[in-house]
DNA sequence: TACCTTATGAGATTAAGTATCATCCACAAA
DNA sequence: TTTGTGGATGATACTTAATCTCATAAGGTA
């Protein structure tokens, strides 16, 4: 479920950035979805209610929301960047067939201290990416084979 | 280190695909590199020796090599797809500053059976993606701050 | 060597994302 | 409430990543 309007207002205020209608709508759209939309997915969804919003504005609003940590980018095997509303740490399952990305919970992996020690990388975030077939595509594949 | 030519020939033969000079060169380039190049990185590197190779051919050779499982795509936060020569399972560390992707070994996470059980996804592969700063960018950041 | 299938090169095309700039809006201060 | 100002927006041009098309060339087999 999406956060309240108050939450958005106070977050933007604390960062010193104006909360425009466009940013509000983009955030609400991503936060209310179950999938992990691309910028174009958001543009198309938002256009129904707000046909005047420009594509460039969607990109800029998404960038802004990532900057202030309300959204995050999801690492992807395709060419378009996907977005995700920030929430508790979770991992992702990519369907190699249809490209859908589902949230999964793989638990706390306790890997971060080890990395810092071994490689000198600072670790801000990590996520586990699984690839395989979602239930629907497994079914479709089975049907095609018969 | 790259595999021998015999290995390439037998792999292509078993898949019924012709092993062209272009495919050989593209594979050798990716396999011999320590980084995780984009298609354009490969194109530029290969062009020094083979200025006649077309950009489209590099893309097609990379696709082909992924199909027959000699290369894999690396999930990425940026816009261009990166490639990696297949080897033992390993994970990736992404530098949020310069975009470099390094190999890391996070060990066997034993997550696959759980996923199958909980979500109905079949899991073919998975990898852990870490994000943070590589040692060079940590240094650069420190210098800028002073 | 000759044949057939598939790949290649060149360049047009599409898709994803960024840059520019005149105008407009959010928001704070008066 | 009005006004001032920095930052955001819309339109559009541009860049970059990747794909498509098709005539020609090369691989692999007989």
UniProtKB/TrEMBL annotation, chains A, B:
<dbReference type="GO" id="GO:1900376">
    <property type="term" value="P:regulation of secondary metabolite biosynthetic process"/>
</dbReference>
<dbReference type="GO" id="GO:0045892">
    <property type="term" value="P:negative regulation of DNA-templated transcription"/>
</dbReference>
<feature type="binding site">
    <location>
        <position position="91"/>
    </location>
    <ligand>
        <name>Fe cation</name>
    </ligand>
</feature>
<dbReference type="GO" id="GO:0008270">
    <property type="term" value="F:zinc ion binding"/>
</dbReference>
<dbReference type="Pfam" id="PF01475">
    <property type="entry name" value="FUR"/>
</dbReference>
<dbReference type="InterPro" id="IPR043135">
    <property type="entry name" value="Fur_C"/>
</dbReference>
<feature type="binding site">
    <location>
        <position position="95"/>
    </location>
    <ligand>
        <name>Zn(2+)</name>
    </ligand>
</feature>
<feature type="binding site">
    <location>
        <position position="98"/>
    </location>
    <ligand>
        <name>Zn(2+)</name>
    </ligand>
</feature>
<keyword id="KW-0804">Transcription</keyword>
<feature type="binding site">
    <location>
        <position position="89"/>
    </location>
    <ligand>
        <name>Fe cation</name>
    </ligand>
</feature>
<feature type="binding site">
    <location>
        <position position="134"/>
    </location>
    <ligand>
        <name>Zn(2+)</name>
    </ligand>
</feature>
<dbReference type="InterPro" id="IPR036390">
    <property type="entry name" value="WH_DNA-bd_sf"/>
</dbReference>
<keyword id="KW-0805">Transcription regulation</keyword>
<dbReference type="GO" id="GO:0000976">
    <property type="term" value="F:transcription cis-regulatory region binding"/>
</dbReference>
<protein>
    <submittedName>
        <fullName>Transcriptional repressor</fullName>
    </submittedName>
</protein>
<keyword id="KW-0238">DNA-binding</keyword>
<keyword id="KW-0678">Repressor</keyword>
<keyword id="KW-0479">Metal-binding</keyword>
<keyword id="KW-0862">Zinc</keyword>
<feature type="binding site">
    <location>
        <position position="137"/>
    </location>
    <ligand>
        <name>Zn(2+)</name>
    </ligand>
</feature>
<dbReference type="InterPro" id="IPR002481">
    <property type="entry name" value="FUR"/>
</dbReference>
<keyword id="KW-0408">Iron</keyword>
<dbReference type="InterPro" id="IPR036388">
    <property type="entry name" value="WH-like_DNA-bd_sf"/>
</dbReference>
<dbReference type="GO" id="GO:0003700">
    <property type="term" value="F:DNA-binding transcription factor activity"/>
</dbReference>
<comment type="similarity">
    <text>Belongs to the Fur family.</text>
</comment>
């Amino acid at each position: 479920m999406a956060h309240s309007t108050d939450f958005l207002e106070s977050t933007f205020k604390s960062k010193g950035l104006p909360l425009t209608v466009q940013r509000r709508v983009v955030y609400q759209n991503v936060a209310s979805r179950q999938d992990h939309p691309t910028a174009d997915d958001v543009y198309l969804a938002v256009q129904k209610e707000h046909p005047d919003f420009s594509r460039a504005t969607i990109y800029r609003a998404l960038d802004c929301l990532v900057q202030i940590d309300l959204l995050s980018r999801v690492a992807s095997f395709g060419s378009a960047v996907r977005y995700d509303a920030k929430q508790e740490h979770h991992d992702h399952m990519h369907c190699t067939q249809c490209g859908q990305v589902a949230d999964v919970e793989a638990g706390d992996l306790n890997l971060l201290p080890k990395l810092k020690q071994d490689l000198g990388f600072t670790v801000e975030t990590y996520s586990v990416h699984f690839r395989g077939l979602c239930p629907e595509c497994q079914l479709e594949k089975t049907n095609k084979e018969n």
